[in-house]
Design goal:
The strands form 12 sheets. Strands 1, 2, 3, 4, 46, 47, 48, 49, 50, 51 and 52 form an 11-stranded antiparallel β-sheet that branches. Among the domains are: about 140 residues, Sandwich (Jelly Rolls), CATH 2.60.120; about 110 residues; about 110 residues, no CATH class. It has about 625 residues and is mainly beta. β6 and β7 form a beta hairpin. It starts with 6 loop residues before the first strand and ends in a 5-residue tail after the last strand.
Length: about 625
């Protein structure tokens, strides 16, 4: 066919799906529809295939999976299933009734998890105990005893004359200092000692604690006062074991410098929330059942298990009718998200209950899962001081301010199909790709290789032979950068899967159906034209289907579709492929589809359609 008088319509760039408005609104370098495509600069190809990464042997599909980095050793994988069973790698550690997920953070080489259901924390905050190889409730109870400690005069020493009160605390193997004791029948019962001066104090009947206690500290008031202080270690205040029941104290009142009174107000157990984060060296925890939905518990600096019962509370807009769902630190501010509304919490150097809070945005909010997780970190939070937040109206970039328009502006209709309560957001900074679970039982991906802007991100849905449940980042089994992994909501398949670029099938057996449907193409859409040829720069394997649909049809009417002969693809064709046709209409949408079984795939970088205007209008 002589194409001299035909108009060339080049199709390149391949900017992903545009799903906003009618088909006529789709730009020529975008797709009306697409499925299971990966993007490279200037083209598209079959997405990466799913291959086994991690195989649990028992339980149910894991709803949450997080990695614990071990210095000098392989990472540990913690997970939870819908029955509340929490696992280390593949070993069941404990059950938390009512929990189906957890929030997690690694802090000071400790793993903290906060069990939750879909809306609230369940039970108490847990910390992984390396000694017993299990999770236990963070914090700890005050020393308990059946009788009080006994303090009597000792050998000559330097303790001044007067009456003083003596107490004891435990330190656990995770570094937590308990409230002072001993408690006898739950009542704090210090020992009163009245000394003549110039003698040491012999202390006995000091309580020992459970196996998690590694040492004990003696507290004492100054003469005839009531504030408790740590007795310095070298003055007899340290019992560096959990065995001895006696100690000898010898100090001046001026040696009692470090107050311990704050320990009376430390929570023995910390209620679990829906999420947590590290902020200014403190652990911040939120997402509690009513009436505490607007509270944040904040630990002491450097002591992630120590929370003051009153001064450690931050109240965020408690009367606005919404509950706290999420939070992230960006620079020196902790941003707190509610179902509607974003608030800033600023550490001003005072106690947390006196921290500054102010409203950032009252229209945008998010869910328990609605803030991005970034590789290579496992903690939900920002990358280069930027995070993505999922709101009903779209996916937004947030850097202390909600950036408009939303990043999903091009795919507003696709975004409506997202189930926000199950949508996890992951940013792979190596592959420059966003993964969002909760889309139509699959994954919505956005490639930002050309820029992190609404008009430059390329979107495409991915689906699999089974329904996707969730995802995470795990360190690559062979080393290198962490990789995105996901699992299916299938009790017969507990595996987690990774994406392998060289694999053109799923699970080693299933072919990957993938296609693109271009925008409506025409240089003269107000005229009836002859579309006479198609040139393709395409490679692949097996048979590629190609067809065109007329302007006024979406493919349901066979008379308005032109089906070309399948193309048998090869990996390196070495030339463009030409196809000729005789199809008259005002405009066409071109579809390339591969669905030819295992290991079938295509890769396209340029298409050229040839059009020749024929008539100004159809007969009336």
């Amino acid at each position: 066919m002589d194409l001299t008088n035909f108009i060339r319509i080049p199709i390149s760039g391949f900017k992903g799906v545009f799903d906003r408005g009618d088909q006529d609104a789709v730009p020529p370098d975008h797709f009306i529809d697409a499925l299971n495509l990966d993007f490279f600069y200037g083209g598209v190809e079959c997405r990466r295939g799913a291959a086994t990464r991690f195989t649990p042997s028992a339980g149910k599909p894991r709803n949450t999976i997080r990695e614990f980095a071990n210095t000098g050793a392989a990472p540990t994988i913690f997970s939870i299933d819908s029955d509340g069973n929490i696992y280390k790698d593949d070993v069941l550690l404990l059950n938390v009734a009512g929990a189906i997920e957890f929030g997690a953070v690694q802090f000071f080489n400790k793993m903290f998890i906060s069990p939750r259901d879909t809306l609230d924390g369940v039970g108490n905050l847990l910390v992984y105990d390396k000694v017993t190889d299990t999770f236990r409730e963070a914090g700890g109870a005050a020393p308990a005893a059946g009788s009080a400690m006994v303090a009597v005069d000792g050998a000559p020493g330097i303790v001044p004359v007067g009456t003083r009160l003596i107490a004891v605390i435990y330190e656990t193997n995770t570094g937590f200092y308990t409230r002072p004791g001993p408690e006898i029948a739950t009542v704090f019962t210090p020992t009163s000692y009245t000394g003549p001066g110039g003698l040491k104090i012999n202390l006995s009947n000091i309580p020992t604690g459970p196996a998690v206690v590694i040492r004990r500290y003696i507290l004492c008031t100054r003469s005839d006062e009531f504030e408790y202080f740590f007795v310095p270690d070298e003055k007899g205040g340290l019992i560096d074991n959990n065995i001895d029941t006696t100690a000898t104290l010898d100090f001046f009142d001026t040696d009692l410098i470090e107050s311990a009174d704050y320990l009376f107000d430390v929570l023995e157990r910390i209620p679990a929330g829906t999420g947590m984060s590290i902020y200014n060296g403190k652990l911040a925890l939120w997402g509690f059942p009513a009436p505490d939905g607007s509270l944040i518990h904040v630990s002491f600096a450097g002591e992630p298990e120590a929370f003051h019962a009153d001064e450690g509370l931050v109240i965020v807009s408690k009367d606005d009718g919404y509950r706290i769902t999420n939070g992230i630190p960006i620079r020196d501010v902790l941003y707190i998200f509610k179902e509607k509304g974003i608030h800033a919490v600023s550490d001003n150097g005072d106690i947390p209950s006196n921290w500054d809070t102010y409203l950032v945005d009252k229209a945008i909010g998010t869910t328990v899962k609605g803030i991005s997780t970034v590789s290579p970190t496992e903690e939900t939070g920002p990358h280069i001081d930027v995070a993505l937040i999922a709101d009903k109206s779209g996916l937004y970039m947030f850097d202390g301010v909600v950036r408009f328009p939303d990043l999903t502006w091009k795919i507003s209709k696709l975004w409506e199909a997202i189930t926000l309560t199950s949508a996890d957001i992951f940013i792979d900074v190596v592959k420059k790709c966003i993964y969002i679970t909760g889309y139509n039982n699959g994954i919505l991906i956005g490639s930002y290789e050309e820029g992190f802007e609404p008009n430059k991100i390329k979107w495409c849905p991915w689906i699999f032979s089974k329904n996707v449940l969730g995802g995470t980042f795990l360190d690559a089994a062979t080393g290198g950068n962490p990789e995105f992994v996901f699992n299916f909501n299938d009790v017969a398949d507990l595996k987690f899967y990774k994406l392998v670029a060289s694999q053109r099938n799923d699970l080693g057996t299933t072919g990957i159906r993938h296609y693109l449907r271009t925008a409506l193409l025409s240089k003269q859409q107000d005229m009836v034209s002859l579309f006479g040829a198609l040139k393709l720069r395409v490679s692949g394997a097996k048979n590629l289907k190609t067809f065109m649909d007329s302007l006024d049809d979406s493919g349901g009417d066979a008379s308005k579709r032109y089906v070309m002969q399948p193309l048998t693809l090869v990996n390196k064709p070495g030339r463009d492929i030409m196809r000729y046709m005789q199809f008259e209409t005002e405009a066409v949408s071109l579809t390339l589809e591969m669905n030819d079984g295992k290991d079938s795939w295509f890769r396209a970088s340029r298409l050229t359609l040839y059009q020749k205007p024929r008539w100004f209008a159809r007969p009336q």
